[in-house]
Amino acid sequence: MLNYLAGIKAEIANIEPDLESKIGLLEEAVLSKEECLKLCSKVMPDFERKGETTLFAALRDYQDNYATLLTRLYELTNKPEHLREAIRASQAAITSASKLDTVSLMAESYWKIAKAQDIMGEHLKAAGNFELASESYLKAAQKAPQLKDFYQDYASYMQAWSEIETAKHHRAEKQHQQAKEHYEKAANLHESTERWNYLSPNYLAWARLEAAEDLSTREQTKEAKDLFWDAGRLFAEAKKSIRTRLEKIEARDEKEMAVELIEASDIREEYCIGRIALEEAKILARQGDNAASAREFGSATRKLEKAIKAMERESDRQELMQNN
Question: What is the pTM of this model?
Answer without folding.
Answer: 0.88
